[in-house]
């Protein structure tokens, strides 16, 4: 599970670099990836599809992945994301 601050556009590139480094770890080979695009309750938040595009998630071939818009503050999207992660773990 990887959580991104959807309202922090300045750090999005840095976040993408870090995510790619993690996905190259041999211990994580084939592990499913859930990305929470958090803080969707803020007016400055990028939509999840734009974040997926910026992070180039569509190029990931070695991992099943899902991007889930969410607001931890409001609880929106958290349950849906965790349900997806649970299904992937079975």
TrEMBL record:
It comes from Olpidium bornovanus. GO terms for molecular function: GTP binding; GTPase activity. PROSITE patterns: ARF (PS51417). It holds the Pfam family Arf. Keywords: GTP-binding, Nucleotide-binding. SUPFAM superfamilies: P-loop containing nucleoside triphosphate hydrolases. GTP binds at residues 38-41. This is ARL3 protein. InterPro entries: ARL2/3, P-loop_NTPase, Small_GTPase_ARF/SAR.
């Amino acid at each position: 599970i990887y959580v991104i601050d959807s309202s922090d556009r300045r750090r999005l590139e840095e976040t993408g670099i870090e995510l790619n480094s993690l996905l190259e770890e041999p211990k994580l080979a084939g592990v499913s990836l859930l990305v929470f695009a958090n803080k969707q309750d803020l007016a400055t938040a990028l939509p999840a599809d734009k974040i997926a595009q910026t992070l180039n998630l569509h190029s990931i071939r070695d991992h099943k992945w899902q991007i889930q818009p969410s607001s931890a503050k409001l609880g929106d999207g958290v349950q849906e994301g965790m349900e997806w992660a649970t299904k992937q773990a079975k």
